[in-house]
Design a protein that fits this description.
Strands 2, 4, 5, 6, 9, 10 and 11 form a seven-stranded mixed beta sheet that branches. A hairpin with a 4-residue loop joins strand 9 and strand 10. The chain has no helices and eleven strands. The termini are far apart. The chain is about 0% helix and about 60% strand.
Length: about 120
């Protein structure tokens, strides 16, 4: 079994910062790409940022220059540092991890989601 546990969401004022974490655990052989997605009320889930096993990153245009994705391979954890937060960043944030299990199965796992609310 594989578990993804997210943390770090909350309420922040416009212009503030938050750091999200997503830790993977369980019967994992290797981790490939790690991503953050978000879903605002009434909208489709969208990709926010992604990082490959080699460390290459890409970002949604709306967060470039404000958000930074990183990963700690030893801890099997992905982070999302969010600076300059705006009300339109309000959403539930989900991590997504593509990995190979000890049984040799390549699959896609989602975290439980963490709420980020940007409001004064």
């Amino acid at each position: 079994q594989v578990q993804l546990v997210e943390s770090g969401g909350g309420l922040v004022q416009p212009g503030g910062s938050l750091r999200l974490s997503c830790a993977a655990s369980g019967m994992i052989f290797s981790i490939d790409a790690m991503e953050w997605h978000r879903q605002a009320p009434g909208k489709q889930r969208e990709l926010v940022a992604a990082i490959t096993s080699g460390g290459s990153t890409n970002y949604a245009d709306s967060v470039k220059g404000r958000f930074t994705i990183s990963r700690d391979k030893a801890k099997m954890t992905v982070y999302l540092q969010m600076n300059g937060l705006r009300p339109e960043d309000t959403a539930v944030y989900y991590c997504n991890v593509r990995l190979t299990t000890l049984a040799g199965v390549y699959s896609n796992y989602w975290g439980q989601g963490t709420q980020v609310t940007v409001s004064s």
